Amino acid sequence: MYKRAVVQPTLLIATLLLATACTANQDSASQASAPPPASSSAASSAAASADASTAPAEAAGDAAASAATASAAADSTATPTTANAIPPPKGMPAGPTPVEGTDYNTIDTPEQPTGDKVQVTEVFGFGCIHCSDLQPDLVKWEKTLPSDVQFSYLPGPFGGMPDPLMHAFYAAQAMGIEEKSHDSVFKAVFVDKKIAGPDDVPKFYATFGVDPKVFSSTMQSFAVNARVAAATDQERRWGVTGTPTIIVDGKYRVQQLKADGAPAMFHTIEWLVAKQRPEHAKH
């Protein structure tokens, strides 16, 4: 509206001036053209001034409109780039990439991969409250593992009564009741308080159908003592200093639980499993 109000008077004045000049030329070729009236000159000057002052404003307005249109078009077609929008490398699980030194560490003397399965081992303690808290989630997670992953437990000398409970783990394995008794031991220690000392251990395992005296004897057998010693040496080579600690393929040590909880820990494990999987394709 502002542009039309300025331009129309200007065009009208210019048209009148042009018509006057043409008439004067037709009346007499020798007659000098009369100068335009003062009022016409003033109007013409004012119109020219208005045109001159309006042109930059109109140009600026047009430039701003063009810039706004271009910006809107760019916004409508732009695709934001975020870390989450970048797909993970082929074969790797979705999600953030675990950070070495924060989420996991490479073991100083890693083992060479063997067989066609990636080995995942939890170093735990039956007397470790954190292992007890993790166990329900660990059981669910273990059920989701693909067929090329082998999961196992390794008792460590951590938590309350580490020595009797490490021996009990291997005695239960030898007597064929480890799998069905494993979760119940945590409950007996931390919830039901049925295992408060070494003498309670054989009595508790008797609830799974074994003779407590035989179980106690098995706990002190040469075979069980040897397995406890081997487990302790293995954990020392892996650099395990607490529980729960997850070892992936004898090469990576996953840090203990942090504030972000079990899901972050499992993501790190799955990422390391995927990283190791090509090594087992060679076997």
Mean pLDDT: 79
Alpha-carbon distance between the termini?
Answer: 81 Å
Low-confidence runs of at least 5 consecutive residues:
1-61, 67-83
> Percent of residues in beta strands?
5-15%
What is the share of helical residues?
A: 55-70%
Tell me about the biggest sheet? 5 strands, mixed
Number of helices: 9
List the domain count as a whole number: 2
Under the CATH scheme, the architecture of the largest domain is 3-Layer(aba) Sandwich
CATH level 1 class label of the largest domain:
Alpha Beta
Q: Which structural class is indicated by helix and strand composition?
A: alpha+beta
Number of strands: 5
Anisotropy-based shape:
globular
Q: What's the CATH superfamily of the largest domain, by name?
A: Glutaredoxin
What value does the Rg take, in angstroms? 43 Å
Multimerization status: single chain
Written as H for each helix and E for each strand, in order along the chain, the element string is HHEEHEHHHHHEEH
**Strand line-up in the sheet with most strands:** 1-5-4-2-3
Which fold name is given in CATH as the topology of the largest domain?
Glutaredoxin
Describe the structure.
This protein folds into two domains: 2-74; 105-280, Glutaredoxin. It is 55% helix and 8% strand. It is built from nine helices and five strands. A five-stranded mixed β-sheet has the order 1-5-4-2-3. Helix 3 (129-142) packs antiparallel against helix 5, helix 4 (162-174) runs antiparallel to helix 5 (178-190) and helix 4 (162-174) packs across helix 7.
